């Protein structure tokens, strides 16, 4: 396992232990970075109006299209670190 992957996994643990829940926009950003970092570019059909949460998640992930997986992992780690220190979200 690479150092980046280990830090990414630790950030996934750390995000669950935050003392304050991030706002919805930050949660969408975390979701999108996680998906881009683990699966690459968005896939599947965009959810319709009957699934507004799914639509927002899809759009957030799609906004990262073309971002390298390692870059998305790094941004995820940085966002979690900023949330832990109280400077993000």
Provide structural commentary.
By secondary structure, the chain is an all-alpha fold. It has one domain (3-84): Acyl-CoA Binding Protein, CATH 1.20.80. It contains four helices and no strands. It has helices at 3-15, 24-39, 52-62, 69-84. Helix 1 crosses helix 4 (69-84). The longest helix has 16 residues, at 24-39. The radius of gyration is 13 Å and the shape is globular. It starts with a helix and ends in a 5-residue tail after the last helix.
Detail the topology: elements first, then pairings.
Layout: H1 3-15, H2 24-39, H3 52-62, H4 69-84
Helix pairs in contact: 1-4, 2-3, 2-4
What is the global morphology?
Answer: globular
Low-confidence stretches: none
Tell me the β content.
Answer: under 5%
Cα-atom Rg, whole angstroms?
13 Å
Structural class designation: mainly alpha
CATH architecture field:
Up-down Bundle
Largest beta sheet, briefly?
none
Approximate helicity band? 55-70%
Number of helices: 4
**Distance between the ends:** 29 Å
Q: In total, how many beta strands?
A: 0
SSE ordering: HHHH
Which characteristics define this entry?
89 residues; Acyl-CoA Binding Protein; 4 helices
């Amino acid at each position: 396992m690479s150092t980046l992957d280990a830090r990414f996994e630790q950030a996934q643990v750390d995000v669950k232990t935050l003392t304050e829940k991030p706002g919805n926009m930050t949660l969408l950003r975390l979701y999108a970075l996680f998906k881009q970092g683990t699966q690459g570019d968005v896939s599947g059909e965009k959810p319709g109006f009957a699934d507004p949460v799914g639509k927002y998640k899809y759009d957030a992930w799609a906004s990262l299209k073309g971002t390298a997986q390692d870059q998305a992992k790094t941004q995820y780690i940085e966002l979690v670190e900023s949330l832990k220190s109280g400077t993000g979200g």
